Amino acid sequence: MRDLFERIHENKGPLGKWASQAEGYFVFPKLEGPISNRMKFKGKEVITWSINDYLGLANHPEIRKVDAEAAAEYGSAYPMGARMMSGHTDVHEQLENELAAFVDKEAAYLLNFGYQGILSTIDTLVHKDDVIVYDVDAHACIIDGVRLHIGKRFTYKHNDIDSLEKNLQRATKVAEQTGGGILVISEGVFGMRGEQGKLKEIAALKKKYNFRFLVDDAHGFGTLGQNGKGAGDEQGIQADIDVYFATFAKSMASTGAFIAADKEIIDYLKYNMRSQMFAKSLQMQLVKGALKRLEMLRTRPEIKDKLWENVNALQNGLKENGFDIGNTQSCVTPVYLKGSIPEAMALVRDLRENYGIFCSIVVYPVIPKGLILLRLIPTASHNLEDVKITLAAFAGIREKLNNGTYQRLSEEVVAST
Ligand SMILES: Cc1ncc(COP(=O)(O)O)c(C=O)c1O
Predict the structure, then answer these.
(1) Edge-to-edge, what's the strand order for the sheet holding 44-48?
(2) Is the beta carbon of 121 within 6 A of some atom in ligand 1?
(3) Average pLDDT, stretch 177-193?
(4) How far does residue 253's CA lie from ligand 1's centre (Å)?
(5) Is 254 a pocket residue for ligand 1 (Cβ < 6 Å)?
(6) Is 218 in the pocket of ligand 1 (CB under 6 A)?
(7) Does the C-beta of 137 come closer than 6 Å to ligand 1?
(8) Which of 289-303, 320-334, 358-372 has the weakest average pLDDT?
(9) Count of CB atoms situated within 10 Å of the CB of 208
């Protein structure tokens, strides 16, 4: 046998192998200063298009005040212990009641993190005889939740209702044999490319097939639907979502998450969900902060309007200038360009160093070879000047990509190393 760590010495993993070239720049960059439309990267101001602070609440003075007061009053420890044992309070309950009412469900339950929360929700909802059917492009937390399932699972092609239907037929056959049920999982908004999940079409299949529907609405909550109730509300089928999930990590600009459903289902999850039964309760400062953020969503529709003014200006501007922004139906704004990975690296350096634009970049193997995906997240704290500067910068980089400048620059880097 060999030392367990030998494998780690030999293989750093698909991303880890690029660490020496990419760390601090393409991965683990350090954005400094208050969270806003303009931050500092390597000492220079950049327009930040890579932060999911959709509503600009992260640094809103009223939010900062409530966060600071709650931290002063409760510290970061209170309450101690899991909810079930010693970590329960009236304020946690109040937040759950307000969240449930906001998303039109009977009850809600808080989760410490979205990732482990949804993973554990999936684990708790299904039994070995049940079948899971989920979108193949689902977020890692859904995939990891499905991995815990010891029964059958099927993927359907991304947002493809025919493929979903075929897999529902397969799932129905299995469930009829085992005596189990079916859980279908989609995202409300797919965070990489911005398409909404086809929630309406999926919900319509309930007339033909017997299944329960779980939606991860991390990017829809706060940005879509009336007052930001999410993608289910936007598509008019919130009532058909059996278990609704959203995180506080995006529009709410905080940490934590929740699930909402019928009271009987939430009660079951409260008593059986391992991630919450065996983990410390969400800190009071986060709970108090979430109550304030939710109040802002409910009472300040102008914040979401400002977000969409920026989204529309950016997306329309890109389209009018001939950029391919795919099929986004949300704030997530992808820009697809053609080029190699070395060209993509030279392009991103140029964007950051010379144009002062900071956005995320995605290349093969996450997307097909030869494509470069620049991903922009407009927020309410951006303004039309930011959009104008960015559109001009994108015209500049497209020209350099087409005239071979980035190809040349990347060859020079290779030659000098
Ligand atoms: C679709 C989706 N689900 C779940 C999560 C995880 O949420 P959290 O950051 O609260 O763990 C994320 C990322 O934040 C996400 O994008």
Answers:
(1) 31-32, 38-41, 44-48, 357-358
(2) no
(3) 97
(4) 12
(5) no
(6) yes
(7) no
(8) 358-372
(9) 11
Give the residue carrying structure tokens 């020496």.
20
- C-alpha 229 – ligand 1 centre gap (Å): 17
pLDDT in tens, 259-277: 999 999 999 999 999 999 9
Give the model confidence (pLDDT) of 346-403 as tens digits: 999 999 999 999 999 988 878 888 999 999 999 999 999 999 999 999 999 999 999 9
pLDDT of residue 417: 62
pLDDT of residue 20: 83
Give per-residue pLDDT as tens, 85-96.
999 999 999 999
Mean per-residue pLDDT of the chain: 96
How far does residue 191's CA lie from ligand 1's centre (Å)? 9
Q: What's the 120 CA to ligand 1 centre distance in angstroms?
A: 13
Identify the band that residue 26 occupies on the pLDDT scale cut at 50, 70 and 90.
confident
The conformation of residue 182, written as its DSSP 8-state character, comes to E
pLDDT of 313 above 80: yes
The full set of domains in the chain, from first to last, is: 6-54+301-416 (3.90.1150.10), 62-299 (3.40.640.10)
120 ligand 1 Cβ < 6 A: no
Residue 257 buriedness (CB in 10 A; 0-12 / 13-18 / 19+)? buried
Q: Does ligand 1 have an atom closer than 6 angstroms to the CB of 141?
A: yes
DSSP labels for 70-116? Answer: HHHHHTTTPSPS-TTTT---HHHHHHHHHHHHHTT-SEEEEES-HHH
Which residue CA neighbors atom 7 of ligand 1 most closely? 114
Of 54, 139, 282, the residue with max ligand 1 atoms within 8 A of its CB, to mutate for a pocket test, comes to 139
CA distances to 46, 202, 238, 317 from 37, rounded to whole Å, are 8, 36, 32, 18
Q: Which atom of ligand 1 is nearest to the CA of 52?
A: 14
Tokens describing residue 371 = 């494509």
pTM of the model: 0.96
